[in-house]
Design a protein that fits this description.
With about 120 residues, the protein is α+β, with helices and mostly antiparallel strands. It has a domain at about 35-110: Alpha-Beta Plaits (2-Layer Sandwich). Helices cover about 35% and strands about 20% of the residues. It has helices at about 15-35, 55-65, 95-100, 110-115, and strands spanning about 35-40, 45-50, 70-75, 80-85. A four-stranded antiparallel β-sheet has the order 1-2-4-3.
């Protein structure tokens, strides 16, 4: 019987300081390059200006490492860089906080998303 991979734990791997710096960086990226965001249940689709392709790739690569339980799909076209983030069913209760750093507005409480997404800054 083949072994199946265990699902990634629903927890951010960043400590609170790194989480805040990452959130601030994403907010800055969104201020200058995010054109649109659409939330559909456990899926968030983001549309970025193609001029930000390198930063969008960097963001996705970093997020895949720290939040391995989220699925990131990237579609690059001449007119838009689309990123679709899908949270697993087990993260339903935390989905709002998980998607908050990617929202169009960067107005949020600094520790709210970190504590809700499963980040354990106390033990780091």
């Amino acid at each position: 019987m083949p072994e199946t991979a265990e699902p990634a734990p629903i927890a951010c791997a960043l400590d609170i300081g790194s989480f805040q710096r990452r959130s601030d960086w994403i907010a800055d990226l969104n201020r200058h390059a995010l054109r649109m965001s659409v939330r559909d249940d456990l899926r968030l689709t983001l549309a970025y200006d193609p001029s930000a392709v390198h930063d969008v790739r960097r963001m996705v690569e970093a997020e895949r490492i720290c939040c391995a339980f989220l699925d990131f799909e990237v579609s690059e076209r001449a007119d838009v860089i689309a990123v679709t983030i899908t949270a697993p069913e087990g993260a339903r209760e935390a989905a709002e906080a998980l998607f908050a750093p990617f929202a169009l507005q960067s107005e949020r409480k600094p520790d709210a998303a970190a504590s809700t997404c499963g980040c354990d800054s106390e033990s780091r």
